[in-house]
Write a structure and sequence with these properties.
Elements: E1 6-7, E2 9-11, E3 19-20, H1 28-32, E4 67-68, E5 73-74, H2 80-84, E6 89-93, H3 96-109, E7 131-134, E8 137-141, H4 146-162, E9 169-178, E10 186-193, E11 200-205, E12 208-213, H5 218-229, E13 236-243, H6 263-275, E14 278-282, H7 285-294, E15 298-308, H8 319-340
Parallel strand pairs: 6-8, 6-9, 9-15, 10-13, 13-14
Antiparallel strand pairs: 1-3, 2-12, 4-5, 7-8, 9-14, 10-15, 11-12
Helix pairs in contact: 3-8, 4-7, 5-8
The structure holds ligand LQZ7MJT6 and uracil.
Catalytic activity: uridine + phosphate = alpha-D-ribose 1-phosphate + uracil
Family: Belongs to the PNP/UDP phosphorylase family.
GO biological process, one term: uridine catabolic process
């Protein structure tokens, strides 16, 4: 899409508007103070002068201490630059166990010293999220749904900032429902869309809706796709991902405790999504894309499909098949990490 700049807009009614502002019409404030207009410019070079991780909150500067409450970490209690300063890749996914096994897997893949079984949960002091570090890779759980992901990301981005990390790339490695794809297919997200099939994320702030862009790094998505071509038996596509606020009715399932629509209405919705380029449905991609984009962080969403939603709603593959599927995004992202670190050609 040809677009020079977006501005965060607020709205009172339900239909969001994303306003286009040509560069020539941007005010001095918009040009000089990206902190206030943090989605201006689809080209991050517009406002990012350093490679450090930036937070877009002027209030943080005046705080003596920052407690990352849900991580049980803080700027006074922990030496964040020493603990995390070498992080280059952050992988996030819903479950703590998945992110622990990913940390162990990447530890082995990178040939890191020490026993991968000794890897410990950095957030053990809280049971909200789990966090594991394997060399330059941080593996963090985010729970289910947008609010849980959003809280985790606020604290994660601040952590990367306080730790003075540079050139960090974020990946969501998750599961999803496929739309017109065979189960087990990996979808690299081109554009994260909301339930209205709009490429945007709405956040209610002070009783108003703020609309943020969900643009992801297209170069990174293409790089993942070419990595997938180098891995045997890893069916992978690029497509749009729909992010919903519910697993059941919200994703057009007929098998929840409540259902307010017919089979025909469900299929009409899924076909409409398919026609808009949607190839999978999950519950975190829009906020993940929006927050990374707003903070100038390169990010990608890589989710495996557990079923084809045109064929059903229940997830009924055997446990060992599910485990195999869940490892596919991990395999793909670890391949890219190894390539970027020069460990493989
Ligand atoms: O990362 P995960 O596999 O948890 O992502 C999807 C979206 C929801 O969080 C959850 C629903 O089962 O799976
Ligand atoms: O159908 C599915 C499967 C996994 N996760 C989702 O959000 N939906």
């Amino acid at each position: 899409m040809a677009k020079e700049a977006f501005r965060e807009t607020t709205k009172a009614s339900s239909l969001p508007k994303t306003e286009f502002i040509p560069k020539s019409k941007r005010s001095v404030l918009q040009t000089m103070a990206p902190i206030l207009f943090n989605t201006i410019g689809t080209d991050h070079g517009d406002y990012i002068e350093q490679e450090e991780v930036h937070v877009k909150n002027p209030h943080l500067d005046s705080m003596e201490e920052d407690i990352l409450y849900h991580f049980d970490l803080g700027t006074k209690t922990h030496n964040l630059p020493e603990m995390f300063g070498d992080i280059k890749f952050v992988c996030v996914g819903g479950s703590g166990n998945r992110m622990k096994s990913f940390a162990q897997f990447i530890h082995r893949e990178l040939g890191l010293p020490g026993d991968m079984d000794d890897i410990r949960d950095i957030c053990a002091g809280t049971d909200r999220y789990s966090m594991y570090k394997a060399g330059p890779v941080l593996s963090v759980s985010h729970g289910m749904g947008v609010p849980s992901m959003s809280i985790m990301l606020h604290e994660l981005i601040k952590l990367l900032h306080h730790a003075r990390c540079r050139d960090v790339i974020l990946f969501r490695i998750g599961t999803s429902g496929g739309v017109g794809l065979a189960p087990g297919t990996v979808v690299v997200t081109k554009q994260a869309m909301d339930s209205f099939l709009q490429p945007q994320f709405e956040q209610v702030v002070l009783g108003k809706v703020i609309v943020r862009s969900t643009d992801l790094d297209q170069g990174l998505a293409e790089e993942l796709l070419s990595c997938a071509a180098e891995i045997p038996d890893l069916p992978t596509v690029i497509g749009n991902t729909m992010c919903t606020h519910d697993f059941y009715e919200g994703q057009g399932r007929l098998d929840g405790a409540l259902c307010s629509f017919s089979t025909e209405e469900k299929l009409e919705y899924l076909h409409r999504a398919y026609d808009a380029g949607v190839r999978n449905i999950e519950m975190e991609s829009t906020v993940f894309a929006a927050m990374c984009h707003a903070c100038g962080l390169k990010a990608a969403v890589v989710c495996v499909t557990l079923l084809n939603r045109f064929e059903g709603d229940q997830i009924n593959s055997p446990h060992r098949v599910m485990l195999d599927y869940q490892q596919r995004p991990q395999l793909l992202v670890s391949h890219l990490i190894k390539k970027r670190l020069g460990l493989i050609q």
